[in-house]
Specification:
Elements lengths: L20 H18 L6 H8 L3 H7 L3 H13 L10 H15 L6 H12 L3 H27 L9 H17 L7 H14 L7
Helix pairs in contact: 1-2, 1-4, 2-3, 4-6, 4-7, 5-8, 5-9, 6-7, 7-8
Amino acid sequence: MAKEDGTDAVRRGSIGAKRNPASQQAILDAAEAILSEEGLSGFSIEAVARRARAGKPTVYRWWPSKAALLLDVYQGFKNARAFPDTGNFEDDLRGFLTNQLIGFWSEGICGTVFRSVIAEAQSDPQAAEALFAYERVRRKFAEQLVDRAKARGEIDPGADSAVIIELLAGFAWHRLLTGRLEGSDADIERVVATIMAATKKNPGV
C-alpha cells in the first residue's frame, strides 16, 4: 500500500553506514531520472528519497549534501568519457578540451549540474569538500596525459604535470562558469598552442 506522498510503505533496506549496493544504485538512478526529467529546479534530497523509496536519513548518511549526490551522478555521466590517448600530446590536449567544452558540458544537463556544484561550494563547506575530493581524483587521471607525453619524449621531462592540468582546468571552468561553451574552437587551438610552446623539449635533452 502506498503512502499519501506516493512513497511505498516498504522502503529499501539500509545496512547502516555501509552502503547497500541495491539502495545506492536506486538512489543514483532516481537522482539521474529527476535531473533528466525536471532539471535542477526539481532536484532535492526529498524528491530523490521519495522516488528511490529510501529514507532521507539513508540518503544523508551516504551523501552528506545535495552537492555530494550531484557529484556522484555527474561522475556516472563522466565515466562514459575516457581521457583521450591518441599517441600525440597535442591531439590529446585538443581532445581533452574539446570533449569537455564542446562535448560533455554542452550536452544535456551535465554542464548545468557541475556549475551548480561549484556555486554551492562557495558557501557550503560540505559541498566544497566534496568538490575538492572529486577534483583531486580527476586531476590525477588527467595528469596521465602529460606523463605519457614525457614518456614518449614529446615534451620537456621537467614539465609540471599538475600545473599543466591546472591551466587546462582553469580555462575550461572559466568557460563553463561564464556560459561560453559554444564556439570555442579557435580559443582551444590557442590554449593548445600555448601549452605546446611552454612544454617544448629543449634540444639535446
